[in-house]
Amino acid sequence: MTQTDTPALTDNPAPPRRTRSVVGKIVGGVIAAAAIGTAATGSVVSASTGNEVGASMTIVAPAAAGGGWDGVARELQQAQKANGLVNNVQVVNMPGAGGTIALGNVSVLEGQPNNMLVGGTGLLAATIQFDSAATLDDVTPLAVVVEEYDVIVVPADSPYETLDDLVQAWKDDPKALPWTGGGSFDQLVVTDLALSAGIDPVDTTYISSDGGGEAIQALLNGTAKAAAGGYPDNIDQIEAGRLRALALVANEPIEGIDIPTAVEQGHDVTLTNWRSLSAPTGLDDDEREALTELVLDSVATPEWEGAMERYHWTERIITGDDLDAFLRDEEVRIRELYEEMGL
């Protein structure tokens, strides 16, 4: 896939499914952590004094303040504080390398249950893209809690009225129809759509943008002709009439979102931007169960429900054996997409 810049991994919703089974056995190992700032490391370890899960908790957001992972961490913090689920809970931001810096740090906190790591599709993708030493096998996945969906958009004055119109023009001359997106997840969606349409992703021009706002500007100023981006990032521009939504990237239609899915239009493109919580390895069964229940109790609060509305998240709860299988399938899927991109 031709691109004008090396994409920076950013973390950029299926019907509600709640499963309260606990996490099964996770195969993992302890590896050397990536280099991080001393202050950040101290923050994580300092919150781990005392092993009662309800006594203290550090939630690690593997990105700077203000992004999607940070939003999950802070809303989880608020839900736990407001409902007395944890006595003392703090958020530590640990950006770098698509989240793998934070992953590496948490991976060496073996046996310390007072830490949680926010992750998701972008973090899994980063471990593949950067071939990171730490992988999701080096932490204990607890739950997937929400999803966000990408939307395929074009400028309002675009000649492409439907997804089929856009795809046909793209097939006619792939390099002449530049795409953009706010991060590597969006590029994966574009790659998946290309494969569905019979287009070689290597022949596609993809302009990497630093976040959803920059991607929208690339569309509006004519630098790009189409974009894949998070629904929350684009909904205001769609409703204001500046962008035209051609497809929602979701398994099936979503209540409250009046955009036809790519699947409905004949393209099997369903990659979602899910968000997850993980813990260090080396925990016993009781600790894993207590942490999983803490996550489930947190996302059942009114505070979390309010956050879901503000962020346009859709609940999707996956735990236990289902989570293990889900993560294995997602890794295979994302790795194949990177191979198709020639990266």
TrEMBL record:
An example of a Pfam family matching this protein is TctC
Region of interest (Disordered), residue spans: 1-20
Taxonomy, superkingdom: Bacteria
Q: Which residues form a coiled coil?
A: none
Which family is annotated? Answer: Belongs to the UPF0065 (bug) family.
For this entry, the protein name equals Tripartite tricarboxylate transporter substrate-binding protein
Organism expressing this protein natively: Microbacterium gawkjiense
